[in-house]
Amino acid sequence: MTQTLLLVDDDQDFVDVLARSLRRRNYDVLTANTLTEAQNLCQQQRIDGAVVDLKLAQESGLSLIPTLRQAFPKASILMLTGYSSIATAVDAIKLGADNYLQKPASTREILAALQHVPASPAPAATDIAPPSLDRLEWEHIQRVLQENGGNISATARALGMHRRTLQRKLQKRPAKS
Prior knowledge:
By secondary structure, the protein is α/β, with parallel strands linked by helices. It is about 45% helix and about 15% strand. The radius of gyration is 18 Å and the shape is elongated.
Protein backbone atom coordinates (compact mmCIF):
# COMPACT_ATOMS: atom_id res chain seq x y z
CA MET A 1 0.00 0.00 0.00
CA THR A 2 1.35 3.40 -0.97
CA GLN A 3 1.87 5.90 1.82
CA THR A 4 0.44 9.40 1.54
CA LEU A 5 2.68 12.24 2.68
CA LEU A 6 1.64 15.85 3.23
CA LEU A 7 4.24 18.54 2.49
CA VAL A 8 3.53 21.95 4.02
CA ASP A 9 5.98 24.70 3.08
CA ASP A 10 5.64 28.22 1.67
CA ASP A 11 8.69 27.74 -0.58
CA GLN A 12 7.04 26.41 -3.76
CA ASP A 13 10.34 25.40 -5.39
CA PHE A 14 11.32 23.31 -2.36
CA VAL A 15 7.88 21.67 -2.30
CA ASP A 16 8.05 20.84 -6.02
CA VAL A 17 11.53 19.29 -5.81
CA LEU A 18 10.78 17.27 -2.67
CA ALA A 19 7.39 16.11 -4.00
CA ARG A 20 8.98 14.92 -7.25
CA SER A 21 11.69 13.07 -5.35
CA LEU A 22 9.14 11.39 -3.05
CA ARG A 23 6.90 10.40 -5.98
CA ARG A 24 9.91 8.69 -7.58
CA ARG A 25 10.09 6.62 -4.38
CA ASN A 26 6.42 5.59 -4.80
CA TYR A 27 4.81 7.93 -2.25
CA ASP A 28 1.53 9.73 -2.85
CA VAL A 29 2.29 13.38 -2.14
CA LEU A 30 -0.12 16.16 -1.18
CA THR A 31 1.23 19.70 -1.03
CA ALA A 32 0.10 22.87 0.73
CA ASN A 33 1.66 26.32 0.96
CA THR A 34 -0.47 27.67 3.82
CA LEU A 35 -2.00 26.39 7.05
CA THR A 36 -5.51 26.75 5.59
CA GLU A 37 -4.63 24.58 2.57
CA ALA A 38 -3.06 21.97 4.85
CA GLN A 39 -6.08 21.89 7.18
CA ASN A 40 -8.41 21.46 4.20
CA LEU A 41 -6.32 18.55 2.92
CA CYS A 42 -6.42 16.96 6.40
CA GLN A 43 -10.21 16.96 6.25
CA GLN A 44 -10.34 15.47 2.75
CA GLN A 45 -7.49 12.93 2.67
CA ARG A 46 -5.94 10.15 4.72
CA ILE A 47 -2.36 11.05 5.64
CA ASP A 48 0.36 8.63 6.75
CA GLY A 49 3.05 11.26 7.30
CA ALA A 50 3.64 15.00 7.18
CA VAL A 51 6.61 17.27 6.64
CA VAL A 52 5.76 20.71 8.05
CA ASP A 53 7.89 23.85 7.76
CA LEU A 54 8.19 25.93 10.92
CA LYS A 55 7.74 29.33 9.24
CA LEU A 56 4.91 29.62 6.74
CA ALA A 57 4.95 33.28 5.66
CA GLN A 58 3.41 35.01 8.70
CA GLU A 59 2.14 31.76 10.28
CA SER A 60 3.80 29.04 12.34
CA GLY A 61 3.77 25.40 11.32
CA LEU A 62 3.69 24.54 15.03
CA SER A 63 -0.04 25.32 15.08
CA LEU A 64 -0.70 22.57 12.50
CA ILE A 65 0.89 19.77 14.55
CA PRO A 66 -1.99 19.29 17.05
CA THR A 67 -4.51 19.21 14.16
CA LEU A 68 -2.48 16.54 12.36
CA ARG A 69 -1.91 14.53 15.54
CA GLN A 70 -5.63 14.56 16.39
CA ALA A 71 -6.79 13.67 12.88
CA PHE A 72 -4.07 11.07 12.24
CA PRO A 73 -2.76 9.69 15.56
CA LYS A 74 -0.49 7.12 13.86
CA ALA A 75 0.94 9.48 11.24
CA SER A 76 4.59 10.40 11.45
CA ILE A 77 5.08 14.17 11.71
CA LEU A 78 8.38 15.87 10.89
CA MET A 79 9.05 19.54 11.64
CA LEU A 80 11.49 20.91 9.07
CA THR A 81 13.00 24.37 9.44
CA GLY A 82 15.80 26.66 8.40
CA TYR A 83 15.48 28.50 11.73
CA SER A 84 16.16 25.73 14.18
CA SER A 85 16.58 26.27 17.86
CA ILE A 86 16.35 24.05 20.90
CA ALA A 87 13.22 25.91 22.05
CA THR A 88 11.30 25.30 18.81
CA ALA A 89 12.43 21.67 18.70
CA VAL A 90 11.11 21.12 22.22
CA ASP A 91 7.84 22.89 21.35
CA ALA A 92 7.38 20.78 18.22
CA ILE A 93 7.93 17.53 20.10
CA LYS A 94 5.62 18.61 22.95
CA LEU A 95 2.89 19.42 20.43
CA GLY A 96 3.17 15.96 18.87
CA ALA A 97 5.86 16.03 16.18
CA ASP A 98 7.84 12.81 15.95
CA ASN A 99 11.03 14.38 14.67
CA TYR A 100 12.72 17.69 13.89
CA LEU A 101 15.21 18.43 11.12
CA GLN A 102 17.11 21.52 10.06
CA LYS A 103 17.16 22.57 6.40
CA PRO A 104 18.79 21.77 4.12
CA ALA A 105 17.91 18.10 4.39
CA SER A 106 18.02 15.48 1.67
CA THR A 107 15.07 13.30 0.73
CA ARG A 108 16.87 10.36 2.31
CA GLU A 109 17.28 12.26 5.61
CA ILE A 110 13.63 13.34 5.54
CA LEU A 111 12.41 9.79 4.93
CA ALA A 112 14.71 8.44 7.65
CA ALA A 113 13.33 11.02 10.09
CA LEU A 114 9.75 10.13 9.14
CA GLN A 115 10.50 6.44 9.69
CA HIS A 116 12.41 7.11 12.94
CA VAL A 117 15.57 5.60 11.49
CA PRO A 118 18.93 7.33 12.05
CA ALA A 119 20.14 8.71 8.70
CA SER A 120 23.69 7.61 9.50
CA PRO A 121 25.47 5.94 12.37
CA ALA A 122 25.62 8.10 15.46
CA PRO A 123 28.85 10.09 15.54
CA ALA A 124 31.39 9.32 18.18
CA ALA A 125 31.45 11.77 21.07
CA THR A 126 34.71 13.27 19.78
CA ASP A 127 33.13 13.92 16.35
CA ILE A 128 30.53 16.31 17.73
CA ALA A 129 31.67 19.91 17.51
CA PRO A 130 30.35 22.19 20.22
CA PRO A 131 28.08 24.99 18.97
CA SER A 132 29.69 28.35 18.36
CA LEU A 133 29.34 31.15 20.88
CA ASP A 134 27.17 33.08 18.41
CA ARG A 135 24.85 30.09 18.05
CA LEU A 136 24.57 29.66 21.84
CA GLU A 137 23.79 33.38 22.21
CA TRP A 138 21.10 33.16 19.50
CA GLU A 139 19.46 30.12 21.14
CA HIS A 140 19.55 31.80 24.56
CA ILE A 141 17.92 34.94 23.18
CA GLN A 142 15.22 32.83 21.50
CA ARG A 143 14.50 30.95 24.73
CA VAL A 144 14.27 34.15 26.82
CA LEU A 145 12.11 35.79 24.12
CA GLN A 146 9.76 32.81 24.23
CA GLU A 147 9.64 32.89 28.05
CA ASN A 148 8.56 36.54 27.80
CA GLY A 149 5.81 35.81 25.29
CA GLY A 150 7.60 37.58 22.43
CA ASN A 151 7.81 40.87 24.35
CA ILE A 152 10.99 42.59 23.13
CA SER A 153 11.21 45.09 26.01
CA ALA A 154 10.78 42.45 28.72
CA THR A 155 13.29 40.19 26.98
CA ALA A 156 15.84 43.02 26.72
CA ARG A 157 15.44 43.74 30.45
CA ALA A 158 15.84 40.03 31.29
CA LEU A 159 19.00 39.84 29.16
CA GLY A 160 20.40 43.13 30.47
CA MET A 161 20.71 44.74 27.06
CA HIS A 162 19.22 47.72 25.30
CA ARG A 163 15.99 47.05 23.41
CA ARG A 164 17.40 48.28 20.08
CA THR A 165 20.45 46.03 20.43
CA LEU A 166 18.12 43.08 20.95
CA GLN A 167 16.05 44.08 17.92
CA ARG A 168 19.19 44.16 15.75
CA LYS A 169 20.22 40.71 16.99
CA LEU A 170 16.73 39.33 16.28
CA GLN A 171 16.82 40.62 12.70
CA LYS A 172 19.88 38.50 11.93
CA ARG A 173 19.64 34.92 10.77
CA PRO A 174 20.57 32.23 13.30
CA ALA A 175 24.29 31.62 13.57
CA LYS A 176 25.59 28.34 12.18
CA SER A 177 26.65 25.72 14.68
